[in-house]
């Protein structure tokens, strides 16, 4: 025999209140006393009442779900970013729907179309997104926050990391505090906004602080494997650099393995630094010097900005930049007690969470 599913009317009858009171109480809208709220919760639990979210969405026009489109779901950077977003979403009673676009613009477009009507807002971090893409695939009225995006004046809110300033600061630290002469740079993938900004920061610092030293840039793709191959390529050069700055920590990890495989000691024989400060960075041997961007905080800030847009507490079409700080550890050859190089590059709108 099938047991009938309890309805909101059953809860109201059990708690001896109106259906409207049950609805307000279970939706967190207030308007009932603490005693009534407790009686409603006890009744709902006793009856095993499960709210009909689909019906509620039809009434409120809210799904209480936000979407996140990322370029990939693999690696510590994205797991930390999702963790920050999810924790902030849970604290607001929001659910998280995540998809990736690592196979290109068509996959990103399909993911956005699949989420339409299922989310109240979108967080987007994708190298495939430009203004034309957004106009073609995303309703203009849907609250959206773009993360690490070059897009401006699109009617969307943008939250960036100070990639350029962070890379400048690390290069400056390696030159001035750690006293390295020639610094090689492992670049990220072509066409990636983060990678381009980090390369620009490296170039600017080298041009200003070591103008007579030739730039030494090798290609990478933000993966450990590309960092490993870049490390081998650098070791095969006629003159080995004294320090290597990888555009992200995953490449630095691969590069570190290449150096150790070749019998080199880090930092005695060659120094190394990364970017992002993923959780494993401090547990490497030696611990990795890196540019710390507070990844989980980036996710939290993006979610809170999106929630403000959804609630009408903030206007779209704004851009903010989260500041970076260099984390001096064992791989760069400078003492932890050494005075940290000040970031002399200032973003247009600095913001330090």
From TrEMBL:
UniProtKB keywords: DNA-binding, Repressor, Transcription, Transcription regulation
Superkingdom to which the source organism belongs: Bacteria
Residues covered by the HTH lacI-type domain: 6-60
Leader peptide range in chain numbering: none
MF term (GO), any: transcription cis-regulatory region binding
Statement: the UniProt record of this protein carries the keyword Transcription regulation: yes
Annotated InterPro entries: HTH_LacI, LacI/GalR-like_sensor, Lambda_DNA-bd_dom_sf, Peripla_BP_I
Family matches, as Pfam families: LacI (PF00356), Peripla_BP_3 (PF13377)
Xref: PANTHER family: HTH-TYPE TRANSCRIPTIONAL REPRESSOR CYTR, LACI-RELATED TRANSCRIPTIONAL REPRESSOR
Name used for this protein in its record: LacI family transcriptional regulator
Lineage: Bacteria, Pseudomonadati, Pseudomonadota, Gammaproteobacteria, Lysobacterales
């Amino acid at each position: 025999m099938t047991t009938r599913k309890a309805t909101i009317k059953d809860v109201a009858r059990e708690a001896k209140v109106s259906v409207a009171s049950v609805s307000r109480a279970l939706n967190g809208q207030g308007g009932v006393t603490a005693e009534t709220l407790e009686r409603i919760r006890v009744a709902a639990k006793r009856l095993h009442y499960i709210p009909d979210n689909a019906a509620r969405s039809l009434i409120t026009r809210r799904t209480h779900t936000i979407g996140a489109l990322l370029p990939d779901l693999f690696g510590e950077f994205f797991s930390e970013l999702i963790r920050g977003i999810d924790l902030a979403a849970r604290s607001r009673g929001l659910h998280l729907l995540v998809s990736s676009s690592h196979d290109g613009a068509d996959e990103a477009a399909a993911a956005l179309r699949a989420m339409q009507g299922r989310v109240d807002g979108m967080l987007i971090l994708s190298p495939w997104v430009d203004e034309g893409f957004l106009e073609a695939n995303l309703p203009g009225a849907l609250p959206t926050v773009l993360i690490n995006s070059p897009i401006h004046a699109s009617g969307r809110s943008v939250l960036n990391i100070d990639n350029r300033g962070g890379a400048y600061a690390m290069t400056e630290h390696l030159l001035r505090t750690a006293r390295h002469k020639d610094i090689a740079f492992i670049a990220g993938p072509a066409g990636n906004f983060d990678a381009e900004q980090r390369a620009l920061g490296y170039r600017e610092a080298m041009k200003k602080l070591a103008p007579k030293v030739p730039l030494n840039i090798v290609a990478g793709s933000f993966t450990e494997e590309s960092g490993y191959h870049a490390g081998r390529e650098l070791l095969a050069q006629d003159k080995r650099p004294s320090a290597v700055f990888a555009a992200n920590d995953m490449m630095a990890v691969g590069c570190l393995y290449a150096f150790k495989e070749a019998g080199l000691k880090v930092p005695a024989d060659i120094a190394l630094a990364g970017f992002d400060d993923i959780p494993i960075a401090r547990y490497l041997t030696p611990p990795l010097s890196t540019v710390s961007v507070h990844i989980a905080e980036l996710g939290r800030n993006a979610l809170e900005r999106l929630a403000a847009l959804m609630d009408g507490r903030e206007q779209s079409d704004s851009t903010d930049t989260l500041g970076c700080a260099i984390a001096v550890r064992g791989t760069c050859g400078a003492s932890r007690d050494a005075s940290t190089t000040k970031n002399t590059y200032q973003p247009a709108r600095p913001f330090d969470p």
